[in-house]
Amino acid sequence: MHHCTADIWSDDVEDLPLLDNLKNKEKNIAFDIGTRSVSVIRFLIETLADLPLSVTTRIYDKHDVPLLLCQLVNVSPWTRTDDKGRLFKYVDSKWNQIAASDRHVVTVTEGQVWLALRHLLLDERCQTHYEIDACRRSHLLKLQCHLSEPVLDQISPLAELKYFLSRLEIMDPSSTRATDSKKPFILEVVTDYRSSLADQPRKYFKKLAKNQLEVFDSLLRDGGAVDLAKDMAAAYETLDQVDAESAKCGNCGEVAKRFCSRCKLEYYCGR
Q1: What is the pTM of this model?
Q2: Domain-wise residue ranges, the chain
Q3: What is the dihedral of CA 58, 64, 68, 71, to 10 degrees?
Q4: Which of 34, 39, 52, 92 lies closest to 189, judged by CA?
Q5: pLDDT tens digits, residue range 67-92?
Q6: How far, in Å, CA of 259 to CA of 266, rounded?
Q7: Are 110 and 104 in contact (CB under 8 A)?
């Protein structure tokens, strides 16, 4: 998720050139996908007990998700201030101006990040899979300044996270390390064709994109785009006709306009 600024995430895009308008929309879509990905990550974290052990290792060790979430809290990409000093927050997939009295209201995305962090750091797997060294410790302790009273009032489970961070601040860093005897050795079996399948689209993407660009250019020049749109609209009308013809009474075989309210499949023409 990228940090947002007023010039990048401007909603006034009508006067922008076409290319800049498309780039602006692309960035907005990418940002929206990022906010939704936070929710997916949180649900994955809360179901780690039901997932393979390799998932836990990837979250804690390979991708260091706790530190990534910590960085999100510090950057707060769901909040921005424009040139006039007005505060905006990303709510319901759009930027909304926030009144000064509501500036401490936690957004859904921010709440997802906090709950995911709490679950990761307080989970018993953290002691086994996550070594809190000096670097990680310094980043995690930065969360304390964000755990204000308004935030704790809205998300009460974060009080446990605040207590954990308070203990981490006074603890010896060596005592928070996952020793080699505790860390499990995981041998993950990855089939050979997985990487080859993942690389195939990359090889042919540019070629396919170039071919499609030529197709659309020819359609626009020859007016074929309009004909194509008409054909697609006619296809939907044909489907409606096919569906209407298939609606026949299950008893007599005549065309029926009513269907069973229970199974939603069988049609009938009368009682």
Answers
A1: 0.64
A2: 18-177, 194-268
A3: 170
A4: 52
A5: 999 999 999 999 999 888 899 999 98
A6: 5
A7: no
